[in-house]
Amino acid sequence: MELARSAEQQELADAVERFCQQQITPERLTAWGQQARGIDPAAWRAIGALGWFGLGLPESCGGSGLGLTDVGVLLQECARGLVPRSVINAIRASWALARLDADTPELSRLATGDAVVALALDEQSARQPLQYRTAIEGIGAARVRGEKWYVPNGMHADWHVVAGREGDGLSVVLVDAAPTKRRALRPFDGEEQAIIAFEGAAGRRLTPAGDGAAALHRLQREATALALAEMVGGAQAALDTTVAYVKEREQFGQKIAVFQAVQHQIADMAMSFTAAKHLAWQAITRMDAGTEDGTELDLAAAYVAPAFKRLTLAAHHLHGGAGFVVEHPLHWHSERAQALAIRYAPEAPALEAVATQLLGE
Amino acid sequence: MRYDFTPQQLAWRDEVRAFLRENITPALLDEQREAGNEGKGPLAQQFILAMRDKGLWGIAWPTEYGGLGRSAIDQWIFVDELESAGAPMLPLTVTSVAPTIMRIGSEAQKREWLPRITATEVDFAVAYSEPEAGTDMAALRTRAVLDGDEWVVNGLKMWNTMAHMATHNWVAVRTEPEAPKHKGISMLIVPMDAPGVTVQPIYVWPGLRTNALFLDNVRVPRDYLVGERGMGFYYAAMALNFERLSIGSIAMARRYFRELVALVRELVVDGEPLRRQPWVRERLARLAVDIEAARVIGLETAWQVEQGAVPAAQSSMAKVFVSELSQRIADAGSEILGLNGQLHPEEPAALLHGRLQWLYRTSPLLAFGGGTNEVQRNIIAMLGYGLPRK
Known about the structure:
The complex is a heterodimer of chains A (361) and B (390). Chain A has 361 residues and is α+β, with helices and mostly antiparallel strands. Chain A contains 11 helices and 9 strands. In chain A, the strands form 2 sheets. In chain A, strands 1, 2, 3, 4, 5, 6 and 7 form a 7-stranded mixed β-sheet that branches. A two-stranded antiparallel sheet of chain A has the order 8-9. In chain A, helix 5 (85-100) packs antiparallel against helix 7 (213-248), helix 9 (296-319) runs antiparallel to helix 10 (330-344) and helix 9 (296-319) runs antiparallel to helix 11. Chain B has 3 domains: 7-90, no CATH class; 124-231, Butyryl-CoA Dehydrogenase, subunit A, domain 2, CATH 2.40.110.10; 248-385, Butyryl-CoA Dehydrogenase, subunit A, domain 3. In chain B, helix 8 (251-266) runs antiparallel to helix 9. Classes of the chains: A alpha+beta (361), B alpha+beta (390).
């Protein structure tokens, strides 16, 4: 029994864990790294058949109608089992689209994994929505002009959820990817990313014109919450593999697990992991239930992301060279730790948000 | 929603809060500060009796002995509220010794001791440590030898806090010298007025008094050995476990932190509101994050107890996390207060009554006491993650 999970959620987690143990191996991940989506198309279809893409989408479009907490459990286990980022990002973006418009017809193809939507939000020089230079205009149907950067799944997405300025406010629209110009970016962790240029592309409105700030804010908070679940999954993997390794590895004629210096590092990793897990899940479950007091997500973001990085670096230290070779899966978690922190939970802004709660502006 | 309290738990919290509102007076808080948190002034005693009359002693007690039969989460809520309010803590007699006697004592022993504890006729100090037996408690040397119907006790106990005010001592003694060291210990009740008992004060850094306890041919009745002979190490561990729920609570340090934040919101230094200083904002934000982390670790510990688990690794985590965080709170807080942060708690000009200064000096005790944090970390690795001892 876990504080963070119900029995049903534990069943879901166990099913994902079984799949990952059978299907996601370091050899396959290495081979898939050469493929466009970072995953073999057959494996993508297998995941589609399991219903993961539709888990949080409405039943009316073929989804399972589950909530943010359940999608979080799914993504935590996906991250723990090193399911490729393209799958995780597709699930997150589909969830976000459904939250913006639960009746949008694209959802039925997204629920099966036959199509992919991407979140095109950040720009080369802007992360704050009010600083976006992408412009949305038009009575009724919208036109989008601007350039979005670092778009996950940007190269193979069928649609983009695009946020831009409209008048004094913000709007969010859905744009068909076909007529856009894309250029692949190469991040250090192998995630598929692109720069997308919108040159007057037609968009369907997902929020009222110029009145999308609140919806976009919620979208970003939920995306961050799901990223926290990913971080917890990765941190757990780093901890577990390290515990297993120190029990096996012998130096000076004994298992290194008997050394107090090693035990104390394991204990510190365990404390960081435990605190991170609960802060993340407190934020996710309260967001899901609508019982937030407004502090949980910032508190969690400020703790979980640095803790995940700290844990992976300690894991590398305790593995020594054995965990440093590219054949060992540890480095994938370490890369995700830093990539997720930079995108979803950079420490200084999270701390400043906490400070603002405590002390005002 | 396991991170949120149920309506029943919220109702319990409100009940505890109402009790605290009614019974904690400014005079009591002043007395608390002056007594160095030993909780023994007349107002504290009155407060502790009010808790008894409300049935609040019995939260950790089994129902057949008048306990409330409440859950571990309810107990956690109670401790959290009590410490948040700055109330006197329940004495170890109530939180640790009594529930142990209830579980391990013979029927006669329970009839002998429990009503006297409830009537406050009997108040225990707790004597486990010795000069050569600290975290390695099983190395203790104090001997008890049976002579007819009496135990004859000889030895020296350390850190016997409150012994100078207690009526009795709860003493770990070696009764089976031939047995392996963990299996030769028993728990013995020693009346403080028995001939051969001497208490010598030891003053420690935060300005608190503790004691050394000299036992010189002290004779106590045979049936003052509680439970089974040779099981004392495990009984002491049980008693320490009862104690841990409060040691691992962040509530006291969190109260000081809240008071600090409220003060920082008001202070102006060098013509600028202190709260605008980026380094002040960052340090306070980091502490707020860690305080919430400590709170949820404590909540999980209580939840595991409620699920029927013995949270050995978990309670060690709570202890390590809270003790080390308390040091950081005290340190950052004293620095944020600037030169005022170095004033003595008894100096009237000291902001926050010098509590952060007091916490700074107390925090080492939290880390090395109750089993040092090194051993706690070993427990986390061994019991929580199966790392081998040898």
